[in-house]
Amino acid sequence: MIDAKNATPSEIVTYLDEYVIGQSSAKRTIALALRTRYRRMQLSPDIVDEVMPKNILMIGSTGVGKTEIARRLAKIMNFPFIKVEASKYTEVGYVGRDVESMVRDLVLFSYNMVKDEFEANSKEGVERYIIEKIVDKLLPPPPKLSTTSDEKYEQLRDKMTMRVINGEMDDKKITIEVSKSMNMGGDESGSHIEIVKIQESLSSMFDSLGVKKEKREVSVKEEKELLRNEAIDSILDKEDMKREALRKAQEEGIIFIDEIDKIAVGTGNSSRTDPNKEGVQRDLLPIVEGSTVNTKYGQVKTDHILFISAGAFHLSKPSDLIPELQGRFPLRVELENLTEETLYKILTQPKNSLLKQYQALLEVEDVNLEFDESSIKALAKISQQANEKTEDIGARRLHTVIEKVLETISFEAEKYSGQTVTVTEDMVEKELSEFYENEDIAHYIL
Ligand SMILES: Nc1ncnc2c1ncn2[C@@H]1O[C@H](COP(=O)(O)OP(=O)(O)OP(=O)(O)O)[C@@H](O)[C@H]1O
Ligand SMILES: [Mg+2]
User: Helices (H), strands (E): how many in the chain?
Assistant: First the structure.
């Protein structure tokens, strides 16, 4: 695990190398963009606002690792980072998710990051709050006129506190009041700021009215968990969290827009002018350029959010995007098509390569799966041939080919339990012989 925020470009590339083979120019460009953000943060206030992020457009055929790069990045990001699909959005005014919702999603993500961070910093306070509440329940303060002296009560209370902390009281049942949760719809897809505001005020109104409380019996152990959210709510400063979440999203946020080619209107396309696609592009313009978006946490300026987009551009070209949008992605990187050699490396090198996945899966059945060197070469070769003869679907071809080869073993795994099964070149060729004999079949089976 590396710390993406402080990592140097070469450290990020090294990390990506563990999972994605080749594609070094794409990796370099992205790593550099991340580092540039880090450098920008170190600048003095008078210049920091001047440095705008350089958005990136990744172009490469299907199955060559575009989404994989994004997925790997997401795992190490300690920035707010979301990956969205351009094709999921619709033009403002039509039914569906509007483009601004991607910014709202980013802020939500950022808020959750901040919340985790704040929680981690106030662990002790949260624990104390929970214990206090439970002790209150187990040992309510004596009535005014009772004979128990304050001193005595304090002593009892201290003892009880210790017992609750130690977990001695965990099995004891207590009765609590829970408010029936009012679901105000956490998903704010396509909702306008007014609706978000109404939702917020409604839910806080219901909270204060305390409607729909019901009594429930739970163990002390369960109550400890149940109280956690309440404790967090009462201890953490929500306003502070919102402010920090907004700042983080604005300054450090990254939005990865996948499948951007799906909103380009290809010249070869029969429906030349698809109003919805163009509309989505037009809606994207202000967001990528820098505008203000309302979210339930407050207003977000998108000027410094980094946008990375990716597309295969099979049916369209980057130049089919409206010019204004093209201009907003000044850094272009092309991903290479995969060769037989790369396919071989993809099979063997990544930390979680396909072969390792199959080995792990069959190990569950106590089958020790091994691959002959020559069988791996054959898999790569056949995949490459299939890509050439039919459609080039990149590394995804490996999935179909291996699945086919291992189908029999996988299906009858229990027969091989406790044994070692070695996949040989002969096996690969036998299983795929149909493909050799009849090219037409290849279109369907691989
Ligand atoms: N260069 C590579 N190194 C390792 N694995 C790869 C590489 N390229 C593709 N893969 C594997 O192939 C599969 C498909 O890759 P990915 O999802 O990145 O394709 P893509 O480029 O986004 O294609 P599309 O344009 O169709 O979305 C993934 O399982 C990924 O692990
Ligand atoms: Mg993809």
Answer: 19, 11
Q: What is the pLDDT of residue 269?
A: 52
Ligand 1 atom closest to 312 (CA)? 25
**Residue 324 falls inside a structural domain:** yes
Distance 404 CA to ligand 1 centre (A): 19
- Res. 409: pLDDT tops 80: yes
- Ligand 1 pocket check for 398: Cβ under 6 Å: no
- Asked if residue 269 belongs to a domain, the reply is yes
Task: Say if residues 310 and 58 touch (Cβ distance below 8 Å).
Answer: yes
Instruction: For ligand 1, say whether the CB of 344 is within 6 Å of any of its atoms.
Output: no
132 and 178 housed in the same domain: yes
Establish if 444 belongs to a structural domain: no
- Please, are residues 216 and 179 in contact by the beta-carbon 8 Å criterion? no
Q: What is the mean pLDDT of residues 184-197?
A: 54
Give the ranges where 315-372 is alpha helix by DSSP (H).
323-327, 340-348, 354-363
Please, are residues 435 and 441 in contact by the beta-carbon 8 Å criterion?
A: yes
Asked if residue 442 is part of any domain, the answer here is no
Percent of all residues in the chain with a pLDDT value above 70, rounded to a whole number:
87
Which residue has the CA at smallest separation from atom 7 of ligand 1?
65
Range of the domain at 104: 9-112+245-334
Using the 3D structure, point to which of 235, 269, 302 is the last residue of a domain: 235
The confidence score (pLDDT) of residue 431 equals: 85
**Distance (Å, rounded) from C-alpha 54 to C-alpha 345?**
32
Same domain, 220 and 296: no
Which of 18, 67, 83, 340 gets mutated to test ligand 1 (max ligand atoms within 8 A of its CB)? 67
